Amino acid sequence: xxxxxxxxxxxxxxxxxxxxxxxxxxxxxxxxxxxxxxxxxxxxxxxxxxxxxxxxxxxxxxxxxxxxxxxxxxxxxxxxxxxxxxxxxxxxxxxxxxxxxxxxxxxxxxxxxxxxxxxxxxxxxxxxxxxxxxxxxxxxxxxxxxxxxxxxxxxxxxxxxxxxxxxxxxxxxxxxxxxxxxxxxxxxxxxxxxxxxxxxxxxxxxxxxxxxxxxxxx
Length: 218
Hints:
Helix 5 packs parallel to helix 9 (175-193), helix 5 (84-105) runs antiparallel to helix 10 and helix 7 runs antiparallel to helix 8. The protein is mainly alpha-helical. A two-stranded antiparallel sheet has the order 1-2. The protein has helices at 3-6, 14-28, 39-46, 50-62, 84-105, 108-126, 133-148, 151-170, 175-193, 197-213, and strands spanning 66-69, 73-76.
């Protein structure tokens, strides 16, 4: 490919837009595990034919987010509670490494964003709202993963966060548990702000183990 072509903006296809729309709905809990995806309604809502919808569904099936059942069509895949043990083990390994790397590499801009997200979580808790907390939690960990400097770690972080969010649609955290998350984020933020890789890794490890302990199957 010519060098000039590489700089051209990439237009999203209708299948891409359908994929992103469904992905957001699943991640946000608007489409819950076991819920059927009505392809006719989705086609009308997005103003596209069924062809890009089918393409999006195939991609989401490959991602493990949808499954096709006989006589029912595509439905949102469930999250096996027994598998959450593996999810939290993976998160502990990855988040510990991410925090260690981020403490050494994080920029002032990323540090400010991390602090802003944490303040948003504290504000939401003080106001008695929990609706925004799952997304704020995901953003906190995404900023850390980006600061670590490796795309593969950011992608793995996203994948694991999505699994946890889907699981918590059926098993949500209560306010007291979210308060614990915020306190653990505070410790992690302090360690990263101090540019102390070992302290950051220890804070992340404690955070993941604490969260795993709250899940009966983990």
